[in-house]
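Exercise 7. Given the components listed, write out the predicted structure of the assembled complex. Treat all entries as one system.
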Amino acid sequence: MGNVPAALKHCLSYEQLTRDYPWLAAWLQREKRNAITDLPKFVKIVEVGPRDGLQNEKEIVPTDVKIQFIDLLSKTGLPAIEATSFVSSKWVPQMADHTDVLQGIHRAPQVKYPVLTPNLRGFRTAIAAGATEVAVFGSASETFSRKNINCSIEESMQRFEEVVRAAKELQIPVRGYVSCVLGCPYEGDIEPSKVTKVVKTLYGMGCYEISLGDTIGVGTPGSMARLLDSVKKEVPMSTLAVHCHDTYGQALANILVALQMGVSVVDSSVAGLGGCPYAKGASGNVSTEDVLYMLHGLGVETGVDLSKVMEAGDFICKALNRKTNSKVAQAKCRL
Amino acid sequence: VVPLSLSRLRPASQAVAVSSVNPLPKQVKIVEVGPRDGLQNEKLTVPTEVKLQFIDMLSETGLPVIEATSFVSPKWIPQMADQAEVTQGIRKRPGVVYPVLAPNLKGFQAAVKAGADEVAIFSTVSELFAMKNANCSVEESLQRAEEVTRAAKAAGVRVRGYVSCVLGCPYEGHVSPDKVAQMAKHIYAMGCYEISLGDTIGVGTPGSMRAMLDAVSKEVPVDRLAVHCHDTYGQALANILVALQMGVSVVDSSVAGLGGCPYAPGASGNVATEDLVYMLHGLGIHTGVDLQKVMDAGAFICRFLNRRTSSKVAQASCRL
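Answer.
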């Protein structure tokens, strides 16, 4: 590079820099290795099987089976179990028994049982049924919003604002979901900035946590990293959760990258319940068992007992007459 | 004391970071093991013509390496009994390498006679696994490997080395990263140009992968290492991602995730090539592979084997 100041040479060429400072390459290599497994010490798992899972299964599960299922999950150490959805049974018949389920379960102390409340009416019904935490669902894609909840993103935010305001008065925490964060079945690629805008709105409203959903599972560690890079500029990493679908087998790799970037809340579904309504025959939610296996192997604490989760998975798969989607369960012959 | 700003340096020669500190390789070489490791572990034995058609389809996908067959005694592995016909029958595409397994000198000689120009040898750090899998001790298996590498050197044939059970053994349980490192070092010194580290029963997680690669990369240059991950516990892609973050740029996989796990009935085995390619392309990493054509080959062999694909990408694309 000739007559160029050393400092400039080093900015222009990493190779030059490491040649002149050999200790630096070793130091950076160490930093690199640490960053790979510099993960949160504790990860909170939000179990969505009873809601997101069952909502997307073909078979409708009777109320008493749902209650038994949730009661099994309550014994596993899972800190949050999404119990049901107060959405109109016209749209989601699988959740028609929302009140009976919520009133029927044995709530374990220290476990949260959030329920979906898409609007004020659903919220009020949920409260009357005894809900102590609720969740609202937004989308990063206009088309998905219109097709899924029959209104624009703007309109949906207004509905949620009403829910959040009512919830605040009753001191009910609200979790926010954003769907299609890494891709939309109708619009294709989604700009991270669009997601960030929705996340910022929900956070500003008062949602204590925002779950970023890769609704059709198209994301890869690359798009996950790009998304988080954008979102973390507007909301603290500690408020974010990832809700990865395993439709293309990418979920665990996507979750790993999210953890490496500081996310410490992960949504998953026991036995990988809940297929993907947009890809016939494809899988949907990532399996809680497989997530736990990875986290525990990484030395990350979750407070959850994997074998008890597998029992719950076993139970519900028998009831649904289907095989588990969890590879860990398959490997341990809990088909 | 290093100024904080220096830690944000991104090596100019490497691209695509998933975080600011872990740049990934720009290019990854995929070693397709479906015709060998895959078919070897399938219940149905595939007729020679179908195998040839299968390998010929794979040759059109851009995959740079396709492991064609195994010169192991048909007494042990009947699925590979047609080893010579397969080796002689494939239409070798220029630029594509077709290694074959050669567990001992006899197998090597038969392979070379059949026209093989690259072979692979197998090692393990677990005594029990060696006994149950190859009916000999680790020491004996290394002697056999030594004979093969010596003969290969003389014949100008390249040798790839495999180490199995690197993250856990079905019989011995936990495997020490240092033992794996010593074994890798040993076979590298023997003359293997590349060492493929196999998580044979898929029990590894990104944590154990990192610890193992930490140890091995101290003994063998990281650009000579490959990872061969099984997806038995769903961990394969996460493990591969960590390996990439640590500088590995060669990954073994099996189209359609062919090849169950003989140690866990009903469980899956090899990671699916389609799912791997999907991840790599999503990361902006170049593979030279056409995913659509790989799915075509996967659909073909699954139809023949009368089984569903194990690849999630193929399932999502309705290539069941």
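Discussion: Strands of chain A lie at 44-47, 80-81, 84-85, 115-116, 134-139, 174-179, 209-214, 240-244, 265-268. Chain A touches chain B through 56 residues (CB under 8 Å).
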